[in-house]
Amino acid sequence: MILIFLLYFSNGLTLLINLKMGGKGKKKRDTPESFKEKGNSAFNMRDFSRALESYSKGLELDPNHATLLTNRASVYIELHRYEDAITDSAKAIEVDPSWIKGYLRMALALRELSRFHEAIDFVHRGLTIKPDFEELLILQKGIEEDLAIETALPLDHPERVKFDNLIKWLLDGGAQFPKLKLRFYSKDYRGVHSTTFIAKNETIVIIPRTHIITLEMAKATPIGQKMVAANLNLLSPKHSFLSSFILQEKAKEESWWKPYLDILPESYSNFPIFYTEEDKEWLTGSPFLDQVNEKIQDIEEDYNAIVEAVPEFAEFPLFEFSKIRMGVSSRIFGMQIDGNKTDGFVPLADMLNHRRPRQTTWSYEDSKNGFVIEAMEDIERGLEVMDSYGKKCNSRFLLNYGFIVRNNDANEYPFKCKLREDDPNLMTKRNLIDGSLSQTFRVQADEKENIFSDFLGFLRFVELNDISILPRIMEECQEEEQPGFKPRKIKPISLANERRVLQHVQKLAKNGIDLYPETLESDAQILLREDLTENQRNCVLMRQGEKQILDWYFKFAEQALALLDLERKDVKKAAKGSPYESYLTHSIIPLLGK
Ligand SMILES: C[S@@+](CC[C@H](N)C(=O)[O-])C[C@H]1O[C@@H](n2cnc3c(N)ncnc32)[C@H](O)[C@@H]1O
């Protein structure tokens, strides 16, 4: 009865459709094959939800249709639903063990979950059926490569044992990072990789509060308490406290933090404060050497201050303190726990290497009682998961982290601008800048950065001859928020002054370049060499970045000077599209006669 009604009903519907279509054409009856065709065309158009719907409808009609199963498995793989793809592939293999795509999709899905051993088993099973099936052969190669990386460190390798201990310790404490694994690139250089696809906005790490070392903990240690009591005036207090914590914990026979302490780098030889004299020679002429020496002195000063206040601290040699200090500066996280700002070590989170623009974001979340990292973009399986340490000049990366960012757009060069010793107004000018004779401007090769105009503003002050106009200038460059004379805010004064400013810039740039024994061109050649050590390469990249900035300023001054004698209309023409367009338009053109 029901069947008859259904037939009648479906015929009625066909009739209705035929009527609507003017009776033209006959509606084809849906079959597993027709759903397969529909699914395939949707799949080819990358409309995976429609493809999924069609294959699923086909499978409702024939649940044992091997092709529909493996086609749907393909859709699941595209949608990163690997477990579903495994279920469909398993069924396809079960209903038709000779259907080669069952093995292919199964291996693909398993691979995407980093289950490489199982994946390669299915590849082998597939190849016994069809030994020359190209897709399987390609997949086999890929999985073998994955396995080679995975098994590069034998299970009993000390580094792997350290990784495993850290992971166990974290998981036992309730940490969550189900899609991440640690990878060993070389001694003391490790990173974090995804074991499977990570979707944008997914939480990828939670490290519980119990496993975070905070500044407060460091202050509560026996040595920390004495440091607090001594009210030390340290140059880097938080770094010193945290270093003292690590040193004390390392000295204990049984530290609860051992799984974390063990993975901290042993050597910091890539950090410039530990460079050998030979390494440092590669930085001849670079102002960065001063920063390195200052850092060495600052650390020693803090160390001595601690030892003076807490004599037992001397049991830790300066060298050990310095190493851990670098460990702190390269791994510290600033965070807010229960509304209180603090700094600390966050195990595993500190294994993410730097990449900009940022790919992940992190913060301490009170609601989760832990430190949370989220993905800011989709991350495919196997890729390195990275964190941005910020937009920084290479001098900061090298000094505090021991590495260099290639083609870094945030590089700076410290121009030291001195008042002229032969300036008849030296004393007046000096008094206006708190008695100092110079100011340093860490400029970038970019006229849009504020530091560019600050630098030129200060040079206008240095090059000012007619001191009678000072009151007017001082009036003009007052800032509402911060009253007081700021020479760096001085706008162009006159053509003659601006000419001297540009000549001064050119001289500073030329003097800077002349300090290096090698030219920019020879640095480029040196970088092609394969025999450079990591430190040597970093030194060349460091000085190359500095020279590029010097070169930029030399050319800027040279080109701007050449325009000063032209007519306004010609300068306007030259300004268009020039890298100094804003400077020429706003600083030079207004100085030229109409
Ligand atoms: C927070 S730790 C990251 C984990 C570290 N790779 C490890 O194995 O312990 C920071 C250190 O990693 C290395 N590092 C981070 N990002 C890097 C990058 N983009 N290039 C080279 N080294 C990097 C530097 O040695 C840096 O001091």
From TrEMBL:
Gene3D superfamilies: Rubisco LSMT, substrate-binding domain, set domain protein methyltransferase, domain 1, Tetratricopeptide repeat domain. One of its GO terms (molecular function) is protein-lysine N-methyltransferase activity. InterPro entries: Rubisco_LSMT_subst-bd, Rubisco_LSMT_subst-bd_sf, SET_dom, SET_dom_sf, SETD3_SETD6_MTase, TPR-like_helical_dom_sf, TPR_rpt. PROSITE patterns: SET (PS50280), TPR (PS50005). Keywords: Methyltransferase, S-adenosyl-L-methionine, TPR repeat, Transferase. The keyword tRNA processing does not apply. Residues 178-390 form the SET domain. GO terms for biological process: methylation. TPR repeats lie at residues 32-65, 66-99, 100-133. It comes from the Eukaryota. This is SET domain-containing protein. The lineage of its organism: Eukaryota, Sar, Alveolata, Ciliophora, Postciliodesmatophora.
